[in-house]
Amino acid sequence: MTAGSVQGDIGADSALVGREAVFAELAEILRTVRKGKVAAVVLTGPAGSGKTAVLESFLEHCRTGARGVRVLSAMGDEWEAQFALAGYSQLMLAPPLRSAKAYDGGPHLPAGPLASLSTDQVVNYASTLGTHLEGLQSHGSVVVAVDDVHKLDVESLRILTFVMRRLHGKKILFLLTLDPADAPRIPAGVLDYLTGHQVVRIPMEPLTPQQVQEVARRLHGIDLSVTAAHGLVRHTGGLPQPVTELLRELPAETWLSWFPALPPSSRLRARVRSVLDSASAALVAVAEAASVLGRSAGLHEVAAVSGVESVLDALDEGHRAGLLRLSVDQARSAVVFVEPGTAEAIYEQIVPSRRIALHRLAAEAVQPEGEKLGHRVSATPAGDQALAEELEDFAARQAAVGAWQDVATALFSASRLSLDIRARNDRLLRAVDALVGAGNVAEAQSWSAAVDALPPSPLRSSVLGYLSTVSGQNDSAQSQLEMAWRTSNPERDPQAAAQVAQRFVLHGVASWDGPMITGWAERAMSLTEPGTPAHVESEAIYGLGLYACGRLGEAEASYQRAFGHAAENAQKQRVQMGAGWLALRMDNVESALVNFESAAPTEYRGGSLRISLWAEAWLARTHLVLGNWDAAAATIARSSVRLETSRMPLIRPLLYWTAAELWSMRGDWDRARYYVSQAAVQPGTYRAMQVPASLARARFHEARADYESALAVLQPLTELDPWTEDRVSFWPWQDTYVNALVMTDQLDTADAFLTSFEGLRREREVPSDMARMAWARGRLLAAQGDPDTAREHFEAALGHLRGLNRPYLRARISFAFGQSMRRAGKRRLASSVLRAARDLYDSLGAATYVERCDRELKATGLDVGHLPDPADAVLTAARDHHLQLTAQEQAVAELVAGGATNKEAARALFVAEKTVQYHLTRLYRKMGIRSRSELAAAFRAGD
């Protein structure tokens, strides 16, 4: 059985989505085994991770899809583990060893409870098993599979390990599954072997959201949204078993909207019921208390709520039953449940009166005020005006420090407990508004129908406008916010009017409209006192509006004032994000890094997930600029999970622009295409969405040397995001646009655009902007036939970056410099500059441009012996024909033989298309061939 055949088989096995790599690795190991090498593999993962499914499917493929492969299998079992040699007997009785002859001369199999075997007995049993395996493998390969090896009886484990250690040069594969949590059950010597270097360990990784989407589509016919997939992974830990159980059991409409939590599966309910039915009263009480307390289930709190004196004894019992465990780290200790969904399964079986009693006890046991109030709310099923007012007061205090999730939770509870309908509606509206402020847009959207149904009011319009803004709905946001302002009364209720004005500030930054940002921010700040939420949030963006109007000095001064007004709480997060945004644009990238890293976390001081996601998206961009590309990739991976679960389209293009550019540069085209698609937006959305979405596509096309497509994407930005005397663009796309014009021979258009851009008034020169203009001008001059002046501009561009840590931009400039000089015939200069570009790209892991630098260096014809040689095949083909090829001919031959068209080859080499045709004609004549296919055949023959 080949790896290819197994891969083909599992392609049709929809039950194993996400495990293709595991199958491929097993197939490759089996291939080496069939050549006469014993191998041992352990599939590791927690319960529900799919170990057994992978094992059984692989064994089925071995039985039915492979010739000469025999399978012996056994399964560990809790009950059978008390009997001596229970596992051993499964292997000896398994087909094809079912006949009595299998035991001729073998030791007697004892019956009854486990009794320790002597060393001689272990050796005898092992000898019998080893002899049978050797006999079987003489007729073909053998796979010995043991599922749940940690549940095998001790004597069988020792015998199996004895055999595995001593068989050599045989065609035998030992394939075992192991739950790491149960590894301590295995004798130390056996465990040392199973975790040692002789055994290949393959972890069963959690399913990714994309794999969960595939499972839903292929197994259940459900088109799961990205948000729902992320939510399902979060609730199940990505374990295949609970994922498939919930997809199978819950109605399809469950996945169409936001869900706060998911119910336990029927299997988990049954398991929990079985464990609790046989548990002591103390364990039941501890489990119920932990399910009520949730994340606050420390030992002290569990003891207080459960009433159990010896909580540790109950925990020991629960640990042995696989129900719960004690988690201890440097920060805290807590009672946690082993399997996701267990807390919900326990909580739902508690009768209502006991739930209320437990929540009252919890309210006395926990310390944080918000949690105390939450338990009191859960213990109050009917209306309670006094408690509603306490919640209102708590929400006001949390709003003052920007802890918007706490505000939302408190106001939703207050709304439910309100006896007056107007108070109930008002609190509901402000709760939804706080959800948006916290960044939980998915949950806020689930309330949109309820908000729509409420009577018209300034607050209702403000909430709908705010929600439309973060959802990327430009026109809807504009109309709702205008309605909110028209119907508000700044003199009678300045706080409410200031809140509407602050929503306009956010609307303005999403539109990158400087006058809108500054005008509404000034209005909001004039209506409020420094330190209040609307004042701080407006001031945090005000500096960006000043910069967008070209007032850089004022912008920097505004952030100095804002930091003075912001207290050391969640509100400071907004100021840090805005200040980092400006610092990044002004080349204070190291300062931007510090601000974004400080603004991103929300775990300890509350704050807004929306602001955190803005900060993380810009943090990824900052890492890219500084050359910390692995850090950028990690930031993207981390924040994309939170972004998709929050369902915040406004920020998606910004984050995925960096992702698309990063993976395009690294040559991972599938991943790059995915992020380009994730960054895409519909027409009519905000400028802050459209520009980065266009840049994601443009960078992708540029990395593939498809300058026509890049130009088509960039052209609309000249109108969408202009840089004028009164408006400063934030996104640096202008040099990329000029480069695309030059590479498509639109030199007059490039000259007119660049001349206009260079002539704009700037309050202060930004080094990276100067570098981009200079290299764009150098590129254009070289194409216009003035390489000497072009060189001056390229060198000036690199000079502007002197003293700055900007490896990516320096590499881009150096590559264009070298490519332009190579085309102008300045080969030694080109070689020197291209080598510098190559080294920079190589340090970044930018494989796409390392390859292009190598191609350019070959085209210079200098020092080719020091380079990796992807064109060895064509050189070999040339030698076979006793030919001498020029550097240009080698480069053209490599590209065309690889399938490039003349136009694509010309783009890649920065030469005219007719130049490519000229070199091809010479190649054909030299090699005695007449077509591209013959050239490709000669290329392949040289491999």
Automatic annotation (TrEMBL):
Signal sequence, start to end = none
Q: Does the keyword Transmembrane apply?
A: no
Give all residue intervals belonging to the HTH luxR-type domain. Answer: 878-943
Q: Which residues form a coiled coil?
A: none
Q: Does the keyword Nucleotide-binding apply?
A: yes
- Which SUPFAM superfamilies does this UniProt record tie to the protein? C-terminal effector domain of the bipartite response regulators (SSF46894), P-loop containing nucleoside triphosphate hydrolases (SSF52540), TPR-like (SSF48452)
Q: Which SMART domains match?
A: HTH_LUXR
What keyword terms does UniProt attach to this protein? ATP-binding, Nucleotide-binding
Q: Which InterPro entries match?
A: AAA_16, P-loop_NTPase, Sig_transdc_resp-reg_C-effctor, TPR-like_helical_dom_sf, Tscrpt_reg_LuxR_C, WH-like_DNA-bd_sf
Name of this protein: LuxR family transcriptional regulator
Please name the source species. Pseudarthrobacter polychromogenes
